[in-house]
Design goal:
The complex is a heterodimer of chains A (about 140) and B (about 375). Helix content of chain A is about 35%, strand content about 25%. Chain A contains 5 helices and 7 strands, in the order H-E-H-H-E-E-H-E-E-E-E-H. Chain B has about 375 residues and is mainly alpha-helical. In chain B, strands 2-3-5-6 form a 4-stranded mixed beta sheet. Chain B is globular, with a radius of gyration of 27 Å. Classes of the chains: A alpha+beta (about 140), B mainly alpha (about 375). The interface of A and B includes residues 57, 111 and 113 of A.
Chain lengths: ~140, ~375
């Protein structure tokens, strides 16, 4: 996780200040009331550092209910409701959503149009690199 | 909210009587109304889904409000010139391979390949054997086999290449890379027809890992550069109307000249990747004629979710619902740009040829 955070800090992302624990707990309660899955642990850790990310036409959601630039997890999941109650969208790019599948405990890259699962990752780092289109390994 | 006499569609002739300020007031009103209605519709959908998930009977008011809000939004979007997406009768959904093929051509992002599951057994065996040979090469009296000539591999024998990949100008540029790799791993010619899309992508990935650069410029980038060259001045004018600072506009244009986009915009496929089979040739999905740049919030969101609308194919840039905030395609300007590009490419090719000839002359 620390490697992901360091890499994101080196990348030219746009972000807003991280959140504190109280804000996150309150938000988790709201998600529970709306019958949505909890935000996964690793993503919460990321939200402590970056409350939403915009990079290269891709968005990672945060807690920004009134924002029109950084996007809000609840608002986006309401705007485009996932097809299953075990799904929580955490971001999107031109083609795909980044989905947290609570049942399978995996991060999935799913096609926006037909919701086909294109890639599944057990860890958040690869999933976020895939969504933001970052190939740190190859330096492209 | 504007007074009733102000609410005149800018698409009607009477719009010419409206001042710029009035048109922008109308635009702001329509943007906020669409945003509010989208939010309301999605909240109603969420309520309905929650009721279904919790095993309750869906209330009649939830269903009714979804219907009313959908109708209102549809009417609003239609009133500003948008049309609901009509899929052709022959609409066949693209396969995963076709979607990934179009995307890689468009954005050049190398997606992960599951070696064990996706690569063909024959290719997997060939690369494993090659790795084994490489390790034993220095440690024993191993005699490396005579490798076939790269040009001896006819990619047209690979079904996916023959069917679709060869139609993409960008994949044509990968031919020498694929041929060289097949020669390097001593892939048997008689099994070329067993290679699949993921094998070919694996070869391209391996090359990118080694060279640290893509074998071609993704179409999305070249289209964005073309947009900046053809419509840069109109972009400046529209962004000026929308009150963006000169610095932001110029930085945005600079980004576009490099193939990237300012963060408030999105590259939009008029016929989307999922429907690429609507074209007889799927490589046309990433053509400039199917490309447009759209402001994400609320226009792109309003088009796609939760309603399914399409934009007028003659629009290449859309920063608002008023035609004043849109750029329409100019085939003449685009043709001039393409001619200049092709002239420049020819010149570069000739220069490269001269340099190669000089180098060869020096060697021998």
């Amino acid at each position: 996780m620390q490697e992901l955070i360091n890499n994101l800090l080196k990348t030219n992302i746009q972000t807003s200040q991280g959140l504190n624990t109280a804000e996150l707990i309150n938000y988790q309660k709201t998600l529970y009331e709306k019958n949505l899955p909890h935000i996964p642990k690793e993503y919460i850790e990321l939200l402590h550092h970056f409350n939403g990310i915009v990079y290269n036409g891709a968005y990672l959601f945060g807690i920004n209910p009134l924002g029109d630039f950084f996007l809000d997890i609840l608002k986006e999941n309401t705007l485009f409701p996932p097809t299953s109650e075990n799904m929580l969208f955490l971001g999107y790019n031109e083609y795909d959503f980044l989905n947290w599948n609570q049942q399978e405990q995996t991060y999935q890259i799913i096609d926006k149009e037909d919701q086909e699962v294109l890639h599944s990752y057990p860890d958040i780092t690869s999933a976020i690199n895939c969504l933001l289109r970052i190939n740190y390994e190859w330096n492209i | 909210m504007p007074k009733s006499q102000d609410i005149i569609s800018p698409h009607r002739k009477s719009s010419c009587k409206l001042s710029l300020e009035e048109r922008m007031r109308y635009e702001r009103w329509i943007v906020s109304t669409i945003r509010n209605k989208l939010n309301a519709l999605c909240n109603a959908q969420l309520k309905s889904t929650s009721e279904k998930n919790s095993g309750k009977k869906v209330s009649r008011t939830s269903d009714k409000s979804i219907k009313i809000l959908t109708d209102e939004l549809t009417l609003l979007l239609k009133s500003v010139g948008q049309k609901p997406k009509v899929r052709s009768a022959k609409n066949i959904q693209a396969s995963r391979e076709e979607k990934l093929m179009v995307r890689f051509d468009g954005d050049g992002w190398l997606f992960p390949i599951k070696q064990a599951e996706e690569l063909s057994p024959r290719y997997n065996a060939a690369i494993s054997q090659h790795a084994l040979d490489f390790h034993t090469y220095h440690s024993s009296s191993y005699q490396p086999p005579q490798l076939p000539l790269p040009q001896s591999y006819d990619l047209c024998q690979i079904p996916i290449w023959q069917e679709s990949m060869q139609k993409f100008a960008n994949y044509q540029k990968t031919i020498p890379i694929i041929q060289q790799h097949l020669s390097k791993i001593n892939f048997p010619h008689e099994h070329l027809h067993e290679l699949n899309f993921y094998d070919l992508m694996h070869i391209i990935c391996e090359n990118v890992k080694q060279t640290k650069k893509l074998p071609f410029e993704p179409r999305g980038y070249s289209n964005t550069r073309m947009f900046a060259a053809c419509y840069g001045n109109q972009f400046r004018r529209i962004m000026g109307i929308l009150d963006y600072t000169t610095e932001y506009i110029e930085n945005g244009l600079e980004l576009m000249k490099q193939g990237a986009l300012p963060d408030i915009f999105n590259r939009h496929h008029i016929t989307n990747v999922q429907d690429c089979k609507e074209f007889n040739d799927i490589s046309k999905t990433n053509d400039f004629s199917n490309f447009s740049i759209i402001k994400i919030d609320p226009i792109h969101n309003g088009l796609h979710r939760p309603l399914d609308f399409e934009i007028n194919p003659s629009i290449v840039f859309m920063a608002g619902y008023d035609p004043l905030l849109q750029i329409f395609r100019d085939p003449e300007v685009e043709q001039n740009y393409l001619s200049k590009q092709s002239e420049q490419n020819n010149q570069n090719q000739q220069q490269n040829k001269i340099i190669t000839e000089k180098l060869n002359a020096r060697t021998y």
